[in-house]
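Can't paste images in this forum, so I'm doing it all in text. The chain is below; anyone willing to post the predicted structure tokens underneath?
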Amino acid sequence: MISYPGALGRFFGDSFERDGFINFIAPEKRGKSTWLIDVAFRAILQRRRVAFFSCGDMSQHQIMRRMMIRVAGQPLKYKEVQYPKSIVKHKDEEECFVNYKLKKFDNQLSWQRAVRKCKEMMREKIKSKRPLLKLSCHANSVLKVKDITGIIKGWERLGWVPDIIVIDYADILNMDYFGLQGRDRINETWKQLRALSQIYHCLVVTASQADAASYEKKTIGMSNFSDDKRKRGHVTGEIGINQTADEKILGVYRLNWVVRREDEYNIDNCVYVAGCLRLCNPAVKSCFVSKE
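Text version of the structure:
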């Protein structure tokens, strides 16, 4: 349903398919929302209908600003950015090597230019006038899964059914259920999220926090869940977002499969990804470890 280029595409394989439920897991402030927006943006480019629900982490203005920066390919304030041309990781070296080019811009990004670029993208790349994005923003801890279902049913009556539901992010949904307490409320929420993908035969993508130990761990593993390990019993795949201090300086992420239901995987095998966050693009170039 969603394809990525290069090594990242081979890493994801066919996991981003209908009836799937994918969770990105990472410690706080490691780019979970950026990766969710990236999934939504690439899906739209591939003519998929995307329902994006913000549960309180970002406002509608913040999400649209990131989207417009991505569409325009121009930063909001900065006049120059380093953009990855290539990334290589040799097996005998600790860090990977990223080759950058400098992109320069004469003016700051205006909303007028952003809107113009959006219309160009719809006309020249997507070649469609159909509405492909529905954005629904809510305050923290207000939105329930049943509310998401209700909103989608309203769109469905108007003839619009999502191919992909992106939820930013599941940990801050309202989990108040009569008769349930503590971790049972979390488990019920993740069961209902899985049901969304099954009822609408769509892909559901969300994110969640890793535990405190993940801050000091190089690669997220099975022990780094937060609150309730039963979350992993409901997803079809869980992707760790890993980044050491040195990798952050380089603008590099390492993604690994923590859980993958439909295929074989090794938690320690990572794909290296170089991005440009000033252009709201976390995945410009990617590679596996070179055998040379």
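The longest strand covers residues 80-90. The two ends are 33 Å apart (CA to CA).
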